[in-house]
Write a structure and sequence with these properties.
Elements: H1 8-25, H2 32-55, H3 61-66, H4 72-90, E1 97-106, H5 109-125, E2 129-133, E3 139-144, E4 147-161, H6 170-191
Antiparallel strand pairs: 1-4, 2-3, 3-4
Helix pairs in contact: 1-2, 1-6, 2-4, 2-6
Length: 194
C-alpha cells in the first residue's frame, strides 16, 4: 500500500479546522467559546508560518511565497488576525461580547429582575449562558448556571464580536480567514508536492 501522509502545513490547517468546529459547537457558551477562539487564532495564524518553515528549501517556493497575491482588503484582514494572535499570546485572552438584539420580550417585573441579576452575575463570573429557541418558535429559554428562565420574545439578530475586529461576527471573521488560509495551503501543496 502507498499512503500519502499530510504535510506539517496540512496538519496545522487541520488543527485550525478542529478548533473552528469547536467554536461553532460552543457558540452560545461563555467562556468556552473564547477559549476555542484563542486556540483557533493560534493554530490558524501558525499555518502559514509552518508552511514557510516546511517549504523554505523547496525550489521556487520562496519566490512564489513572496508574490503576495493578497488583495488590500485581505492584507488588512491578515494583519488583524496576526495582531489578534499576538494579543492572545502576549497580553490577554480575547473576550467576545455576545451581542443579542432583542425586542418584544414578555417578562413579569419579578422574573425580569431575577433574569437581569442572573445575567450580570454570569458576565462577572464567567458563568456559562445558553440561550435557545423553544420548538414553538415564540418562547426562549436561557440557562444560566443551571437555572432556567423562559420568556417570550424575538431575537432578530445575534452575534459574537471582539473589540479588535468589531465590524463582523467573529465566527464569520474566522471562517473567512480559514477559507483564505485553506486556499493558500491548497495552492502550495499542489504547486510544491513534498
Amino acid at each position: 500500500m502507498n499512503f500519502k501522509l499530510d504535510t506539517q502545513t496540512q496538519r496545522k490547517l487541520k488543527e485550525a479546522v478542529f478548533f473552528f468546529g469547536k467554536m461553532k459547537e460552543a457558540y452560545s457558551l461563555i467562556p468556552d467559546f473564547d477559549y476555542y477562539l484563542s486556540a483557533f487564532v493560534s493554530a490558524a495564524r501558525a499555518v502559514t508560518l509552518v508552511m514557510v518553515s516546511e517549504y523554505a528549501h523547496t525550489p521556487g517556493f520562496n519566490e512564489w511565497n513572496k508574490s503576495d497575491d493578497w488583495t488590500p482588503e485581505e492584507k488588512v484582514f491578515m494583519d488583524a488576525i496576526k495582531d489578534l494572535r499576538n494579543t492572545t499570546h502576549k497580553k490577554y485572552l480575547p473576550t467576545t461580547l455576545f451581542d443579542i438584539r432583542a425586542d418584544n420580550f414578555a417578562f413579569t417585573p419579578d422574573t425580569w429582575a431575577d433574569f437581569k441579576e442572573q445575567v450580570e452575575r454570569a458576565k462577572a463570573g464567567g458563568i456559562p449562558v445558553r440561550v435557545t429557541r423553544l420548538p414553538d418558535g415564540f418562547m426562549w429559554e436561557a440557562e444560566i448556571d443551571g437555572k432556567l428562565h423562559k420568556f417570550k420574545g424575538s431575537i432578530p439578530a445575534s452575534g459574537r464580536r471582539i473589540a479588535e475586529l468589531p465590524e463582523k461576527d467573529i465566527l464569520e471573521v474566522c471562517s473567512d480567514f480559514l477559507e483564505a488560509v485553506s486556499k493558500v495551503v491548497s495552492e502550495c501543496t499542489s504547486k510544491f508536492p513534498l
